[in-house]
Amino acid sequence: MSFLPRVARGVMMLIGIGRQTADTDEAAATPTVQATLAMGEIHSDMPLMQHAGFASRPLADSDHVIVFIGGNRQRGVSIASNDQNGRPKDLQPGEVCLYHPRTGSRIWLKADGSVAIAPANGKTAVTGDLTATGTITGNEVVAQGKKLSSHEHSNGNNGADTGPPV
Question: Which InterPro entries does the entry mention (predicted)?
């Protein structure tokens, strides 16, 4: 094969789109995936490269963009993944959303400048101190088992118990 056709074929073989066929293998320092490409081409143990500081574990049936080093189809690396079924479809132009593809939980940087945290199970956990400079609004405040809406103090009203907040 002459030089030019060999180079053209190498360029054509550089990138592929595949569908993940099994759970991500997290055993190695860099996770690996197995994916099927067009024409039934199966590739296993491909490193899953992700941006530093971000980690995800794509589910089977996720799509992957795969780069083959030097056009060698035996040396694939997944450089991006996507879950078509779980991706939010209600984002406005310019919005950013960190989301869980199966549960729908999300942290949403909205177009109006607000940030929405919406856990699917209604629970948000914070470890450490929480500081707010604005108003905190909610239906109930409970601190060390004491409800703000019904908390009474003894000996607070000329020796009598106080009533609950009004």
Answer: Phage_Mu_Gp45_N
Q: What is the pLDDT of residues 27-80, one digit of tens each?
A: 989 999 999 998 889 999 999 999 999 999 999 999 999 999 988 888 999 999
Does residue 106 lie in a domain region? yes
DSSP class of residue 72 equals -
The whole domain housing 95 covers: 86-125
Contacts 24+ apart (CB under 8 A), 67-72: 67/14, 67/15, 68/13, 68/14, 68/15, 68/16, 70/10, 71/9, 71/10, 71/11, 71/12, 71/13, 71/14, 72/13
Q: Which two tokens stand for residue 98?
A: 């960190």
DSSP state of 96: E
SS3 assignment, position 163: coil
142 belongs to a structural domain? no
